[in-house]
Amino acid sequence: MDALKDRDPAHIGAYTLLARLGAGGMGQVYLARSPGGRLVAIKVIRDEITDHPEALARFRREVETVRAVRSAYTANLIDASLDTAPYWLATEYVAGPTLGKAVGERGVLPADSARRLFAALAEALASVHGYGVTHRDLKPQNVILSPQGPLLIDFGIARGAADTALTQTGLTPGTPGYTAPEVLISNQVGAAADVFALGATLAYAATGRPPFGSGPTHAVSYRVVHEDIDLAGVEPELAGLISECVAKDPAGRPGLDAVIARCAVSSALAEDPFYGRLSGDAEAVPQDLQAAVAAGLVPRGHGAPTPPVYPPTAGPGYVPTAVPAYVPMLAASAPTAAPERPRSRRTPWIVALAVAVVVGTGTAVAVRTLQDGQDGQDGQGGSEARGGGESASPSASGTAASRKVPEYIVNNKVSVDNWTLSDDPYDAAAGRGECKQVGAVSAPMELQYSATDAEDPDGGNVRQRAKISFRFKYAEMQTEKPAPYYVSVGVKPPHDIDPDTGMPYQFPSKGIGYTSKPQDIFRHWKDGRDVELVYPDDFQEHTASGKTYEAIPVANDPGDWTVVFYHVLGSPTNYESIGCHGFRVGSS
């Protein structure tokens, strides 16, 4: 739990903010108090993604899912505002550590306690499935250990049976190590995928280790698809049940009722002494504004102390979940001129995660954004792009001028795109080959691209550096500059790379590799010049855990390298492939 920052509002709707609880890819979560004294967790969608239709659709779907699933194993939706920014939802606040936090601090669960937790979580999933919803992101961080039993949280990517997938091409929902193989391979999401995640979650509870190891996202995902789960040291009968739940073939996994029967529990989880110690780890939280100020969580004088207003009717588009009905009073933002306060020290008000924990694919990633392609410096990146570029004309900019584009894209997808050098000797000598691409979408204009040796463009193979060029054919014939169209280039070596040594593993690359800063492909629209980048100079890998790695030299992994062009749609994890090329690394 952290103190509010100067830029945080004092109120959201009718609720008084008391502290920050967490943050993630889609929203900021606050601890707040209702006018009647009830503690709630409020998730507010981030400003930079409020203009993105898919992000809003996901958020609205989360609200509707939490509203529909009224289970004893989930937190109830208290309130929501979906009509105008800021968009937010409020759920009941539940004290208790996450399973991930509890195991990290208290150690692994004994076999009997693990079986009781296994049965309780299976029952929780069965309850959610009874509403026609699959969770799709069950993991230790999304299980709250309340004194009454475990609760499932974070339905940001949950999906009803009749829903249309909102996942972009190639983007896998869920968290690496807990996402089922069929989801990674072909995005086949169903109840069996939740059973897989249940088994992986119990493996963590019983071992204290990531179920399929750690490392880059694509390496973990490869193990999920091809290797066995880590169950070393787990009691054999419990290990057998977990192994069945994480079977590679979804048809081979047991149903949730069979899991419950196999656990054969004879007493409630809440009565388990070990579980009682885990669930009791949450300390007291401030119950009102005065206590939050005294604890240093709310700066004195922060925001306006104006009490909430309750009009007799709700505004258009706003449907409160709880009675009495009222229209939310959206607090004004804190003055933008105020500098951000230094991060406050941790206070005695330590508490476990709130129920409305943020949406994400696993871990939060801090992202700086580019305002219309500029970051306050050169705004472009890339060797050729550093010379600057023309700004969009007023007629062309429109809403695009205010569009925010991430500074980079995250390597969080399983990519099977693969370029190979031609078998024809003549074509091979010229560096030509064929790219097998899965799930690409059509670009608005014909995309032209090339990948050659930076020092010897006619030499065929790449020896040290590759020059990658791309453009839209006939873009210069536009009478007005088109709205920005941002492209990031992903360069993937033949094999997955050990990030610490920069040397290849023995298995093929399954990630998107090293990527460039997003470039506006229309930057040179008047004369139709290419956007040019140089590998490795202009490339880095950005992982889902927030780490950044420099691109490796091509000589580290000789062979066929793949180059994929991604249209960047507004967030670091929201992009789609529009083209594929490659080059051979070798001595001749």
From TrEMBL:
Name of this protein: Serine/threonine-protein kinase
Ranges of compositional bias, category Gly residues: 376-390
Organism (species): Streptomyces sp. R28
Every Protein kinase domain range: 15-275
Pfam (any one): Pkinase
Keyword entries, A-Z: ATP-binding, Kinase, Nucleotide-binding, Transferase
CDD domains per the UniProt record, alphabetical: STKc_PknB_like
InterPro entries found in the cross-reference section: Kinase-like_dom_sf, Prot_kinase_dom, Protein_kinase_ATP_BS, Ser/Thr_kinase_AS
Compositional bias of kind Low complexity: 391-403
Chain residues that bind ATP: K43
Enzyme nomenclature, EC number: 2.7.11.1
